[in-house]
């Protein structure tokens, strides 16, 4: 962490949950965001700074996700989505300054209710008026309403980035981005914001937004190098409406860089709460034997597996930040990132969300009924991971898109065919085992698509008939790269402790734990192909028990690997005397 004082920001009374309005908890959320913005602001956006500023932004997002997932949601939309679009697409300096100072809270309005996550099909229109040199923003029907941005709280100045299809002289020029103020003093004429009912998980001021002849000045078109001359001549350096739409939709990369950091941090915080709690919580088995929960093998599998997933998610997240937040020199003249890079970022978002979601779910399961209540934080972390199954791009759709690219494109090299030979008595090469299954699924999918093409079948029908296989292939690819991420983590030293030799083995065993759990559901598949002997396949479950037993004495050291400051962990389960804290 670049600034050791950052965790102290979360000790402020504004983070005391007892001060929140139960009917409108987002009022407290926005006070928290204002508190953080005021104390971490700089002359310009952190996103536009050098490596130190971007590291500080990532640290801030991680800590906020640990302290308050709803505040994290608002903060990343403001600091990364809205500010990222403003910087990357060439906003007026005055608007950039408004976002950087926190005078206006940024928002993102792209998704429309009638098309779900199909942002390439935006139907909101921005018609250019050559006389006024303005754009007229219109929602053609209810299905094109923007849903569900968190902009329903009245009186809070917002500066929203709105995706709309640009029409110049009746010609569709693709989806472009515009800055539109909401609730700036008086409501913006023509903007209708309909607050939606309060939601239980990740409660914010969600709304549906429609535009009826909203006038947007030329300077608030995030033109990205495009222009319209005084005579009405349109110029776009990209030269194609489809490329312009892809460039605008690619704005999501700023979200992926932030969301992955927050999801991984929430997973680490969940383990940092649940793992020590399991060591303090007493249990009694069916024979009346009393022991701490963490001595039970089922708890060990849940929590040590959660720790492995949280660390893997962190490796993914921290590996993509610089790429996801990359800004072209000067801003406002970019072509965006290459399609291959965008695909890798999208797949990383899916991988991190899946790993984080499972890590938090395991922590909740380990904590029993206490894991259900918001005062113990775990269910709020689960709300964040669940929200991003669809938010920031639908995970299943992005997995299928990745499978299509890997099966039909030239930006993916499948693992070698064959696989590792089964060696009696030797530990399997776990990444090679996972790679073998990935390659087998790749071969099945590509062979099926080739056979369909040879038979003259429609490519769309052939693909949709094999979506299950495509998704299985994408999941197999993710399992391999997740294990490789933990393999990379094990090669770096962690914090020092009492037992140097034992601590050095912890990352190795966390790697082994994640790998065995990835292989175990498909043990019969590996045995049938001779990649594991029958005895080795049957021994996988025993191997999990043995790994957990080796990790048990190092639970405290494992918690230190999670990098969760005590200042941001709140709730009774995180305290030393959870019985007192849950009952007083």
TrEMBL record:
Segment forming the signal sequence: none
SUPFAM superfamilies given in the database record: Acyl-CoA dehydrogenase C-terminal domain-like, Acyl-CoA dehydrogenase NM domain-like
Matches recorded under InterPro entries: Acyl-CoA_Oxase/DH_mid-dom_sf, Acyl-CoA_oxidase, AcylCo_DH-like_C, AcylCoA_DH/oxidase_NM_dom_sf
Domain of life: Bacteria
Gene3D superfamilies registered for this protein in UniProt: Butyryl-CoA Dehydrogenase, subunit A, domain 2, Butyryl-CoA Dehydrogenase, subunit A, domain 3
The protein's name: Acyl-CoA oxidase
Provenance organism: Streptomyces toxytricini (Actinomyces toxytricini)
